[in-house]
Amino acid sequence: MVLIAFDALSNPINNYDLSSEINTYNFFVEIPAGTKQKWEVNKNTGNLEWEEKKGKKRVINFINYPGNYGFIPQTLAGDGDPVDVVDLEEAIQRGEITKVKILGGMYFKDGKEEDIKFIAVANEGGIFSNYSTIEELFLDKPSVIEILKKWFESYKSPGKMIFYRFLGKEESEDLISQAHKRWIEKNIKD
After folding, report:
1. How many domains does the chain have?
2. How distant, in Å, are the alpha carbons of 52, 120, 163, 172 from that of 89?
3. Cα-to-chain-centroid distance, residue 161
4. How far is the C-alpha of 113 from the C-alpha of 109, rounded, in Å?
5. Which of 35, 47, 104, 174 maximizes the CB count within 10 A of its CB?
6. Are 102 and 69 contacting, i.e. CB atoms less than 8 angstroms apart?
7. Is the pTM of this model over 0.90?
């Protein structure tokens, strides 16, 4: 297993804040844009590890990730992992934390499980940072959203990821807030 170790006090899931500013979230990059290696933070150790399946390092059998992929710290989605985020900006190094704003999201089912992918952009200074909502991006650059939707529908086995609908900014931020509350409740119990 290949890994990037963080010390015990810097588990990126639990020990980085959800946000430091209004309407801005901290975003931890597990998979840089333009790559295929499937890395994920180990929830127990906090280490960023190259996932293995049947003893082999995972590489997606599809075209490269269309954006930086990772999560927002201090959140807990329905699948027990932090919420998934795809950031549309240029590639960011694996293990980096950057500030993003959420434009909206895509509601999928992975098998029978809810699997929401939130769409983010740099808070400032990025290629897409002038957009504030998914609707604005739809109007100006509809192909970007369609590429993301098609990519997530197609990168696994055909029919595994089923798209249901797009989520607006407000609904997405509400869902992230709920995921943060679940994370708090879980950590109070532990």
Report:
1. 1
2. 27, 8, 23, 19
3. 16
4. 5
5. 104
6. no
7. yes
In which domain, by residue range, is 163 found?
Answer: 3-189
pLDDT digits (tens, 9 = 90+) for 72-123: 999 999 889 999 999 999 999 999 999 999 999 999 999 889 999 999 999 8
Joined together, the tokens standing for residue 187 give 């950590």
Element (H, E) at 147: helix 142-154
CATH number at 110 reads 3.90.80.10
For 175-181, the CB contacts below 8 A with 24+ separation are 175/83, 175/105, 175/116, 175/118, 176/18, 176/25, 176/72, 176/75, 176/83, 176/102, 176/118, 179/72, 179/75, 179/76, 179/77, 179/82, 179/83, 180/18, 180/74, 180/75, 180/76
